[in-house]
Amino acid sequence: MLAVHFDRPGGPEVLHLKEVATPRPAEGEVLLKVAASALNRADLLQRQGHYALPPGASSILGLEASGHVAELGPGCQGHWKIGDPAMALLPGGGQAQYVTVPEDLLMPIPKGLTMLQAAAIPEAWLTAFQLLHLCGHVQAGDSVLIHAGSSGVGTAAIQLARKAGAIPLVTAGSKHKLQMTERLGAAAGFNYKEEDFAEATLKFTKGAGVNLILDCIGGSYWEKNVNCLALDGCWVLYGLMGGADISGPLLSKLLFKRGSLITTLLRPRDKKYKQMLVEAFTEQILPHFSKEGPQRLLPVLDRVYPVAEIQAAHEYLEANKNTGKIVLELPQ
C-alpha cells in the first residue's frame, strides 16, 4: 500500500509517498481501507522529530481517517461488517491506503456527510468534546474562551459549546478567521495580533471573566489567561504552540482566582479511555451531525489535497493559513 513516509526529521520537503506492507488486523481489530485522512498539529511535530510516538503506535502519520471496513480481525464482536463506511480515531497510521483500528474506536459516518467531511471529525471533535465535558465540565450559561478558534478543534469547540448552552468567545489572528467563527456561533472574537484578548474578554463579560479557557498556546498566554479567568474558573491546557516556559507569579495569580489548571492530551491516552470517549461521543453528539436545522453540527473543511501533495498540505498548515481542517484524499 502507499503511505506518507519520511526518513529523517525535517521540514515538509522530507515527506514522500512510499510503498509499504499492508497491516493485518490483530485480535479485536478491523482493517480500514482509507478514503481520507485529516492533518493535525501532531503530524507537524512528529515530522519535525518533536513528538514521541505512544507505545505500539504506527510511525505513519495520521490521527484520524474515514473509509470502509475491508477486513475483520479475529475476535471481533460483530459490530461491523465488511464494506461498512466508518471513521476512526487513531494513534497513528491514517495517512495510508489501509490502517488497522480497534473495533471500538470506529464510529459510523453520520448520514449526509461525505468521506472528506467524516475524516475531519474524530481527532478534532473528540478532543473538543473531551476538553469541554470531561476536563472543563462545561455548564449552560458558562462563558468559554477558545484559543485558535478557527482551527479544527476550535471550530468544533464553538459548536459543542453552543450545543451545551454555553457562550463561546474566541481568539484568532485575522478578520477573516474571526468572521468565520462568528458564523459558527461565537458570541465574540478577538484578534490577538491587534488587541489584548484578556482586556477584551473582561469587557465582554463585564469584568467577571470567563468560566473556562481552552488553550493550545501555553507559555506566552499564561498571564492574560489568568487575568481574564473568572473566580473558580478552569483553564484547560492541551497544547504548547506558544512555548512551555513560564516567567512570573503564575501560581499566586491562579491561587488568588481559586482557579484550576488542567492539562490533557488525547493521543497518548490508553485504549480504555478512548473507548469510553468514543462511546460517549457516538451516543451524545454524533446524531446531531445528521439533524437538519440551526443546531446541526458540521465539520469545517478548509482545503482538500491529494495525498501526493502532502508537502503542500504541511506547508499550508504550518503557515497557520487554515480555517478549519485540511484533509488528504487517498487513491482508491
From TrEMBL:
- Tell me the GO molecular function terms: NADPH binding; protein homodimerization activity; quinone binding; quinone reductase (NADPH) activity
Its domain of life reads Eukaryota
Q: Which keywords fit this entry according to its UniProt record?
A: NADP, Oxidoreductase
Record's keyword annotation contains Oxidoreductase: yes
What InterPro entries does the annotation carry? ADH-like_C, ADH-like_N, ER, GroES-like_sf, NAD(P)-bd_dom_sf, Quinone_OxRdtase_PIG3
Q: Where is the Enoyl reductase (ER) domain?
A: 10-328
Q: Which GO terms describe its biological process?
A: NADP+ metabolic process
PANTHER family in the record, alphabetically? Answer: QUINONE OXIDOREDUCTASE PIG3, QUINONE OXIDOREDUCTASE PIG3-RELATED
NCBIfam families cross-referenced by the UniProt entry: quinone_pig3 (TIGR02824)
Tell me the protein's name.
Quinone oxidoreductase PIG3 isoform X1
Species the sequence originates in: Dipodomys ordii
